[in-house]
Amino acid sequence: MSPPPEILELPELCDRLQRDAGASGVLVLSDDGEILGHSGRIGELPDPVVEAVADLCADVVASVTRRELTDGDELVAEVGALNACAGALGGSAVLVVIFDARSKLGLVRLRMKRAREGILRSLETRG
Questions:
Q1: Which tens digit of pLDDT belongs to each residue from 80-120?
Q2: Residues 125/9, Cβ–Cβ less than 8 Å
Q3: What would the mean pLDDT of 65-84 be, rounded to a whole number?
Q4: Cβ atoms < 10 Å from Cβ of 65
Q5: Which CATH class is domain 10-122?
Q6: Is the Cβ–Cβ distance between 52 and 84 less than 8 Å?
Q7: Is the whole model's pTM more than 0.85, yes or no?
Q8: In angstroms, rounded to a whole number, what is the distance separating the alpha carbons of residues 28 and 4?
Q9: Which H or E run includes 41?
Q10: Arithmetic mean of pLDDT, 10-31
Q11: Per-domain residue ranges of the chain
Q12: Angstrom distances, CA of residue 14 to CA of 3, 56, 110
């Protein structure tokens, strides 16, 4: 029997996802918008990008509530030269990856999928 997977801290998981996806930033937000974890220079994002990410997160939460979006599904928004890909983490959090043309949507989605389990485990340990 193999040992249980190591539970990593949320900041470390966000850093890893940012690096692996070639992203500008990663956010893990509660369903009410509280930042639970992040990586990258999130505070330096232009206002239109911040507003688009907020709208995207609200769309994810509303879509999950209406059962139009399930765990593992993502919504994507394009704001100028940046893109944001967001998906539900269970029923209580949203994972957002912000990236530019140096990364591809397919790679970002793959890396998000691979990171989900670890992020969910980390969120569960937070209580």
A1: 899 999 999 987 899 999 999 999 999 999 999 999 999 99
A2: no
A3: 88
A4: 12
A5: alpha beta
A6: yes
A7: yes
A8: 24
A9: none
A10: 95
A11: 10-122
A12: 23, 19, 15
Tell me the two tokens of residue 96: 């957002």
| Gap between the Cα atoms of 121 and 78, Å rounded | 29
3-state secondary structure of 23: coil
CA-to-CA dists, residue 31 to 5, 65, 107, angstroms: 26, 11, 25
Instruction: Identify residue 40 by its one-letter amino acid code.
Output: G
pLDDT tens, position by position, 28-65: 999 888 999 999 988 898 899 999 999 999 999 999 88
Residue count of the chain: 127
The letter for the amino acid at 60 is V
Q: Is 8 exposed, middle or buried (0-12, 13-18, 19+ CB in 10 A)?
A: middle
